[in-house]
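Review session, final week

We close the course with one last complete record, chosen because it touches almost every idea we covered. It is Probable alpha/beta-glucosidase agdC, a protein from Furculomyces boomerangus with 834 residues. Go through it on your own first, then we will talk.
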Amino acid sequence: MFKKLRVSLLLLALPAFIGATAYAPSYQCPGYKLGGLVQNDNSFSADLTLAGEPCNIYGNDITNLNLQVKINQGNSIRVQIIDKDQKQFQIPETIVEINSDSKLTGFADLSFNYVQHPSAGFGFQISRAGEVIFDTTGYPLVFEDQYLELISKLPHNANIYGMGETPDYFRRDSTNSTKTLWARDIGDPFRENVYGSHSIYMENRNGKFHGSYMHNSHGMDINLIDDTIQYRMLGGVIDISFFGGPTAYDVINAYTDFVGRPRKIPYWTLGFHNCRWGYKSIDEVDQVIANYSKANIPLEVMWIDIDYMDRTRDFTFDPVNFEINRIQDTLNNLHANNQKMVMMVDPAIQRNSSYGPYARGIQDDVFIKNQDGSNYVGQVWPGYTVYPDWFAPNVDKWWSNEFNMFFDQIELDGVWIDMNEVSSFCTGSCGSGIPEDVVPEWPWTIPNPPPPRTPNVNNTFLVPKYTINNHQNEISEKGIDTISVHANGLIDYHVHNLYGHMMAQHTSKFLKTRRPNIKPFLLTRSTFAGSGAYADHWNGDNASNWDNLHVSISSMLDFGIFGIPFIGSDICGFNGNTTEQLCGRWTQVGAFYPFSRVHNAKGQISQELYRWDSVAESARRALNVRYSLLPYYYTKHHIASTIGTPVARPLVFEFSNDANTFAIDAQFMIGEGILISPVVSENATTVDAYIPKGIWYDWYNYSPVVGMGQNVTLDAPINHVNVHIRGGSIIPTQTPGKTVEDSRKNNFTLIVASDENGNAQGELYLDDGITYDSPSSMIKFTFDGKTLVSSGSYGYNQNTCIEKVVILYGTDNCKQTTLNNVSLSLNCGWQIQI
């Protein structure tokens, strides 16, 4: 494999385009020189030594580094640049379980080439089939204790996707934009950092995708400017991996193989969910459930926000408005109708010695500390609060015990964890010095945050010399202090972005321990690389406006890249009052999110989908399509759990050579076979939808559309969302019921949508939808214009059958074959002549 590890010596001056704008602040730094090379078949290591006088631009230059390069099967390369003394923080593999020995094969062949530049020092290139796809040559490496910088060239106006979490259009602005990774509790500001931290990006270059992931938990800016991508990190090490594609799905497969595959979802989560913050009592919750039934809108899961808690304290119940026996009755009634319940739990624990979770946590010593060893005290909904330290030796025992006692009272179907960036309403340990027994009377009003403090600029862990683009007075604002201390001696500065991820790990562990063979449902707000192995995500506190409706599609597509495919935004918006028209159109989009839930904030108007007749009708129509497609959705989620492939997909992933698709984010696909073209602008009654080349069929009447690779104006009356089936697809559907379980009892229809050559194929995954050890079937359907064939593995005993087959033949409106009452088995292979 020596061909993959090449040595070059570039005797060139710095490139002319490197200037202060593109290359500030490090363009005068000396870089590093390479020596001590040790090379093996698929890896090598070397020493890197500072090549001149220290730069010390935002920290202290580290003189001696170690370079390690490993190539996995030729299709991924991991480059690690680590301080020789290993004092810099590296993410423990117990937190993000890196697969450093991938066995994936059959993808693009990557090679690594290092360069010693005469003035910029060490640099490297990653190439795919001779084309350089990542190139740091000519840009000095900066490696300081609190500032790392790595820069690579990009093509002009590159097609970049990923990096977040940030509400933005799907195709990133590669000419002048910054993506900041610093978990922050903030209501979805456009193009700013919010709850999660994901450095993975993908580029479509000449129809082929490649990707790169920076494995670093520190705050960072990723700048796209002047035809470069610039990583600027507040510490740690450089640990960057490259995935060669060439398809978008190959990149995501390799990435999720590296950081963790998406978890297997329980089938019922694919139903429709309802929630709001602000339900006043369990009586109101019961009425909402009844109203959905009365309106004939399917409701699978009823959620309850922090309203159920006694004075907003975790693991408690309001003794008046949400009395536990009444909640148990509601849960039992839901279960009797094949419906489910989910409740919220936050990480912040009220500091109150008479409050059991706090007292037991003190006994087990599980809370984050101040520098002086006292408990760090912030402020969230219950007032002054302490925070679980996920590094504490006893934290798992304590957390599981609190959850077990909670579940002993109410055996919920799933758990929702929120505010886990982690969030605080004050900056600093604002409760320190206030006696522990000072607990305000209920109901209390959370005081306005004190004015921004004057940060101690001499403490560079509170005020780093390099300022990431975090849009706050200081990086600790809206969270806990970066100098707060964890049990292993680390300050939060190094691990802030891991808090929500670690909370999800511990909560997932509880759920799997309590119900070992049951696929758990866990939703988290804050995420990191690999979080999809433990939890799902929603896009947080969005706003009720048309821009947020549009951007919700992009955010959904982002998380397909991030390895969290079960994703959605709050339908109709969370903050602010929605309108009838907006809510109706949002329902038509949200009905196709992988995670479909309406939710809004306290103090806003009610927006359950039955509140307006027109919205209710839109919900019935759109959810009827969704529930018909449940077998298709579940199949795509199963595939996501095995190879990472997203369920909701941008058109560019399917049509990577079609430049018209590169920036499309107002349409999306479910799997490879369903195209959704919704209305995302006010007062529109048509959609200018891009129809890629090929045959497409209208979902509702099967009429064909010949895609010419151009926009087509589609009618979109107020209750209609355009859905098309891609020619060449076989779509398994079931007659929709009022719940997922009801739907699963119905027989199947196969929609065989022929392409221009008369062919089609599809697949269907079957299991019990609940347990890990369920027998399963993976069935492949093929059609060649004359014969329909079912083949595959048949381990699951499916009690229903295919009772109907609809075959669509290209552009011939008159040539459509419907086979009724065919009773085709799903428990064995067969073929039929058409």
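Two points worth writing down before the exam:
The first strand starts at residue 5 and ends at 8.
The chain has 14 helices and 45 strands.
Good luck, everyone.
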